[in-house]
Amino acid sequence: xxxxxxxxxxxxxxxxxxxxxxxxxxxxxxxxxxxxxxxxxxxxxxxxxxxxxxxxxxxxxxxxxxxxxxxxxxxxxxxxxxxxxxxxxxxxxxxxxxxxxxxxxxxxxxxxxxxxxxxxxxxxxxxxxxxxxxxxxxxxxxxxxxxxxxxxxxxxxxxxxxxxxxxxxxxxxxxxxxxxxxxxxxxxxxxxxxxxxxxxxxxxxxxxxxxxxxxxxx
Length: 218
Known about the structure:
Elements: E1 9-16, H1 21-30, E2 34-42, E3 65-69, H2 73-86, E4 90-91, H3 116-121, E5 126-131, E6 137-144, H4 150-153, H5 155-158, H6 166-177, H7 193-216
């Protein structure tokens, strides 16, 4: 049965020299009820200062949510101002732009109203796990995931592991997959996006394990 396009959340994505390709692939593979209606890729060399960002960013886009993977601050700020005028929410992970939703990483997005199917499915990861009697991971279900798909891809690495070992392994495996620059440290937290991604998945698995142990003890 074909999905009715009218029921799908329409996503518009802006990227710079393919900077969002990894996330786009993850959304296309793992997203449900989402349609990427347009991808704008700014792929030409850019000057340090851009006085006329409208030469690079079209204003004829329409959608329910915009993902901003642009790197140049002049383009990024201009895009957010456009989205404000259009009343379209915009997520700019790893950036700090007034008027945009700016989690530290894509997998750091909390649950917020108005982000539709994307906000329900992507952001801070959530797992459900089932344990064996000797406290090993028997099965795991992804409830919410990083948009790059790493949350799903690491599952096979922890099946059969002891619950004390599994969180550390999942953190390490996520960092192997993450494309964030490990040398790009946040001056406030002292953490890089790469390490943050590992830690947020580790915490999600620990929470799921604790819940499974709690349910079993009832």
